[in-house]
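Subgroup meeting minutes
Present: P.N., E.W., G.H.
Scribe: E.W.

1. P.N. recapped why we're keeping a running log of single-chain structure predictions: easier to compare across weeks, and new members can see raw inputs and outputs side by side.
2. G.H. added today's entry (165 aa).
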Amino acid sequence: MTDSREGRAKAEISFAVNGEPKTVHAYPMERLLDVLRQQLQLTGTKEGCGEGECGSCAVLMDGILVNSCLVPVLQAAGSSVITIERLAAGGTLHVLQKAFLECGGAQCGICTPGMILAAVHLLNKTPEPTTEEIREGLSGNLCRCTGYSQIIDAVAEAARRGTST
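Output recorded in log:
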């Protein structure tokens, strides 16, 4: 595509999102966050700070937790991206989503998608984490509402129940 903004041309970029192949037309340095929300209508991924400090925009890219506000969409080319929308299968909440609801780990909702994906990343690596490992696994995510204890309880409860993505 030859549309340009400030001398830059849009590119055709292909990657998998939530298990489905996608091709977008975007400026190569456009944020993955914006492409997910605006072009692909995956609005579960939230923008908190826009600077990679809060973790609200976290997604899994090739199994690694990344802040999508810091990732140029060109970097996602050929990769597999998982967003919060992938977790609820067939209308059934993921065990982490259920635990967040039951333990009061979700309040205003801005941090929740990134917090849950950080927990998925942690539990994929460490299925039976200690409280300290949960704290460390969530350390890149900020919450202004819960005081964290409910979130830590939710992750611990999900670990007890067993998770998989």
